[in-house]
Design brief:
Blueprint (H helix, E strand, L loop, with lengths): L1 H47 L2 E4 L2 E4 L5 E4 L4 E7 L6 E13 L8 E5 L2 E5 L3 E6 L5 E8 L2 E5 L2 E6 L3 E6 L5 E5 L2 H4 L7 E7 H12 L14 E6 L1
Parallel strand pairs: 5-6
Antiparallel strand pairs: 1-4, 2-3, 3-5, 4-5, 5-8, 6-7, 7-10, 8-9, 9-12, 10-11, 12-13, 14-15
């Protein structure tokens, strides 16, 4: 009897232990899934919250695209790279130079008042200060479409520009020297993930100074910096 009772107790204890472990595992898994879901939701919410930038600065967007914002300019972004729609929208007042990461499934939209520039992957400049009576869109690489509601002003390619009168809504499209239109950004120096060895060459040339690297092991270290 003692042996049977001992065996019964041992078996019961083992079953109870397995039940406790199973319950703990399921609870932990459930908590992990809930936590993962909450993190996922928070990530979507975080990416949905517009971020606002003001004044001259270099901005890296969530998808790797970049914007060089001119002085007295403002940019708000609304991104949701986690959703099926893959929202990529920004709102510009002032002037900005855009280098947009190509993504055929998710168009990039720049809203300028009630007008929109739509791109898939390109480099372009927009000038739309609130005190001006015109919007200028110029392309240095790729292709952009400029529209307002159901009106398409045109699709422009490198060294082309569309200028829109914001009062009369008249517009003109023509050839330009894109380097002259974007000359303002030459006042800024942007170093984006370069070897220090390459970066100091840019700095030395820009500011007419001589720079030496005393520690040769640093030459291939990467650096990101902006001089505005």
């Amino acid at each position: 009897r003692f042996v049977r009772r001992y065996a019964f107790i041992s078996t019961a204890a083992a079953v109870l232990l397995i039940a406790v472990i199973s319950a703990w595992y399921l609870s932990s898994r459930k908590n992990h899934d809930v936590e993962k879901t909450l993190l996922s939701r928070n990530e979507v919410v975080r990416q949905n919250v517009p971020e606002h930038y003001s004044g001259k600065q270099y901005i890296r967007l969530p998808d790797g695209s970049t914007v060089l914002l001119n002085e007295k300019s403002e940019l708000s972004i609304n991104y949701n790279v986690s959703s099926e729609q893959g929202l990529r929208e920004v709102y510009l007042t002032g002037e900005g130079y855009f280098d947009i990461h190509h993504d055929a499934t998710r168009p990039f939209l720049v809203h300028i008042g009630d007008r929109t520039v739509r791109v898939l992957g390109t480099e372009f400049n927009i000038r739309a200060y609130s005190g001006d009576n015109e919007v200028q869109v110029a392309v240095t690489r790729g292709k952009v479409e400029v529209n307002r509601d159901d009106i398409i002003y045109g699709v422009i390619t490198p060294d082309e520009q569309i200028v829109i009168n914001t009062v009369t809504d008249e517009y003109a499209r023509g050839k330009i020297d894109s380097e002259s239109v974007t000359s303002w950004k030459n006042n800024y120096l942007v170093i984006d993930n370069l070897d220090i060895e390459d970066a100091i060459q840019l700095i030395a040339g820009k500011y007419n100074v001589s720079i030496e690297i005393a520690d040769r092991s640093l030459r291939k270290q990467r650096i990101t910096a902006t001089f505005l």
